[in-house]
Write a structure and sequence with these properties.
147 residues, alpha/beta, 2 domains, two-stranded antiparallel ribbon, 4 helices, 5 strands
Length: 147
Amino acid sequence: MMAIAPACEVVGFTAALGGYSDRWVGGAPGLTPLAISPRQRLDDALKAVSGLPSRGRDCALPMVWVSEQRREFDAFVVLTDNRTRAGKVHPSQALRAYRERLGIPAKLVVVAMTSLGFSIADPDDAGLLDVVGLDTATPRLIADFAS
């Protein structure tokens, strides 16, 4: 994906010691910038993320984080194993708030490695796309949708 859209930032979902902040586990959710480049081999990229403390993913965090910083992004791509938990705001609500705050028609693509039969995308929003699984066509599909 980074080779197709080089003007991007890569962050990982992380959680403070103890895991995701919810009623079952302590900790606070967050994002961590990742030093991953399009020229890296897959095994090197996996090493960059393998030690991150992460149990649940608040998939709204990317939109909330850039909205608070008033940074402009035209698309967000979330790769997940589908173990997602909503935080204070649902991801589709966070995207709507980001669009309104910055006046940008940003899009959201959620790529789940497995399907659990549900989606975090709002089916009534044409700016959200769900994808299950990855193959060589997925990056181009995402880039075409985002443009």
